[in-house]
Amino acid sequence: MQIYDVIIIGGGPAGLAAGLYAGRARMKTLLIEKDKDGGQIVITSEVENYPGCMEEESGVSLVARMTHQTEKFGVERAQDAITAVDFSGDVKVLKGKKGEYHARSVIIATGAFPRPIGCEGEKELIGKGVSYCATCDGNFFEDMDIYVVGGGDTAVEEAMYLTKFGRKVTIVHRRDQLRAAKSIQEKALKNPKINFLWDTVITKLKGDGLLESMVIKNLKTGEETEIHAPEEDGTFGVFGFIGFLPQSSIFEGVINLEDGYIPTNERMETNIPGVFAAGDIRVKDIRQVVTAAADGAIAAMMAEKYLEH
Ligand code: NAP
């Protein structure tokens, strides 16, 4: 039976950075990714906020360079979806659709994905008008119209942040009251660049290449309206902030979770010795590529220390 020093679950920036550090530390490392590497960042058409990224770097190209760098240090790869884990022994067992894997330590870097708005045309227009990250994509909508979906703290705070870029920012909320904290609401209600579309959902996003129009529906009256991009802009932005879906269902009942996220200390240790978590799956405030990569590096170095002892 092959026993790895460390198995990393997830091939996004956190997992790839963990792989890089584990590989360089000469740990026998396996990185398991169920799909393609990259996680959420591959839906970003241009990354400008990762230190050292190239000009006009896409998420796909940044991840390809991260993958190359990680594999250079001898990290083994498996493409498999882990469906169950047993962390009770010194050797941790991971069961996948294709096989079973064993390791003395595990780094969980499975990520969290934004909940989709759930309307027609959304998937096709991600990165072409539709986004889930104001920090990543806000500046692509300089002096354009921006719509923000959601009524929680994130939606309202991000809407305020997006007023730095957009000509006007409209919050589209399915009810007639915000869920966001009163203090956050007050600031937004006072902001002259913020407008509201209450009791409203987006039912369709349309565009050939770029987002050009959308159909919205008033849930109280049933009335549908199509909103077109101003002719001079050709497009507009739609940002979805209706919660995140942490990829942690396989760890339920195995490891401590808080609302689906994994709490860790600064050393990325979970409540189970030898099991670490890194990146967006952790309980944390800031979910960015740079913070995910930092988590991955810390987790791998701490896994090395754990194995030494
Ligand atoms: P959230 O509080 O769960 O709010 C999600 C929002 O999206 C709600 O307004 C909800 O509408 C709406 N929504 C959910 N599903 C939808 C759907 N399918 N279609 C349309 N709208 C939908 O999520 P969050 O704003 O991301 O915040 C997550 C947690 O982080 C919260 O505990 C929040 O307090 C915290 N947070 C705190 C701060 C801060 O303190 N500064 C900042 C950001 C986040 P309904 O209201 O109708 O349910």
From TrEMBL:
<feature type="domain" description="FAD/NAD(P)-binding">
    <location>
        <begin position="4"/>
        <end position="296"/>
    </location>
</feature>
<dbReference type="InterPro" id="IPR036188">
    <property type="entry name" value="FAD/NAD-bd_sf"/>
</dbReference>
<comment type="similarity">
    <text>Belongs to the class-II pyridine nucleotide-disulfide oxidoreductase family.</text>
</comment>
<keyword id="KW-0285">Flavoprotein</keyword>
<dbReference type="InterPro" id="IPR008255">
    <property type="entry name" value="Pyr_nucl-diS_OxRdtase_2_AS"/>
</dbReference>
<dbReference type="InterPro" id="IPR023753">
    <property type="entry name" value="FAD/NAD-binding_dom"/>
</dbReference>
<dbReference type="InterPro" id="IPR050097">
    <property type="entry name" value="Ferredoxin-NADP_redctase_2"/>
</dbReference>
<keyword id="KW-0676">Redox-active center</keyword>
<keyword id="KW-1015">Disulfide bond</keyword>
<keyword id="KW-0560">Oxidoreductase</keyword>
<keyword id="KW-0521">NADP</keyword>
<comment type="subunit">
    <text>Homodimer.</text>
</comment>
<keyword id="KW-0274">FAD</keyword>
<dbReference type="GO" id="GO:0004791">
    <property type="term" value="F:thioredoxin-disulfide reductase (NADPH) activity"/>
</dbReference>
<dbReference type="Pfam" id="PF07992">
    <property type="entry name" value="Pyr_redox_2"/>
</dbReference>
<dbReference type="InterPro" id="IPR005982">
    <property type="entry name" value="Thioredox_Rdtase"/>
</dbReference>
<protein>
    <recommendedName>
        <fullName>Thioredoxin reductase</fullName>
        <ecNumber>1.8.1.9</ecNumber>
    </recommendedName>
</protein>
